[in-house]
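Order emerges. For instance:

***
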Amino acid sequence: MSAGIATPGLYYDVPAAVYHADPCPAPSLSSGVLRTILNQSIEHAALEHSRIGGSKRETTPAMNLGSVVHSLLAGESSDLVLGDFDSYRSAAAREWRTSIEASGKTPVLERDIEDARPIAKAVREKAGVGISNDPFASHGRSEVTTIWREGDAWCRARFDRLVIDPNGYADIWDWKTTSDISDRAIERAIAGMGYHIQAAFYLRGLAAVLPRYAGRLSFIFCFVETAPPYLVRRVTLSPTFQAIGRKKVSEGLALWQRAIATNDFRAPAFETLEVEAPAYLDEDDEITISTAA
């Protein structure tokens, strides 16, 4: 398909590399960029945007594992390409990796996929247990790209799994790998990583392109352990948590729209900060503050 997308809608055949390079007519707002705006600044967001600053985020082993799990769960939609190498130490292995990345695919070694296979298997076997809306139903699709507009600003999202029932509901499923499946750990992860903002943004985008499903859209997180026994937990957000997410999305979107309209991505200047001394600094000392007459 063409690298450019000029019409809002759902797209099922956008390679990951094309999506992350931003195929919209103008630099678009993604969930990651939105959360950077809210957590840091519009200037930080512009710096990391593929079409503005082009600065790439550093990846961690946990992020790499999560990416491979996502690719395995995508099945036929996966852009994963296995390499018959023990490592990337040889020139041939490095050349292969470069060529695969240049083609828009994801290179992965057999040894790297071994840890991901049981995780993906657990999600496939356990995510839909006890519910009727199976995430792996035949009418579901993986790695679905959504493009929409908010005023003059373009927005994009990529759903791990989208299940649209022609006569009922539309569910977005989002896979999350974790080392701790406890209630508290999941709550901390959602709040700390801004996943509630991601959920609100994705639902906003899906509502924009599927208006007939208004009131019948849902977002389900699926957390899975990265070590045995690979427990899986479905997670949804309370109405209050959802409302907070929607409010944050509106705040960040307004900042992005203003920056796009003015082509000004500078963060506001900081006011002078007066810093209080930490209590431990004067625990053992008597300090007298004098003022000039």
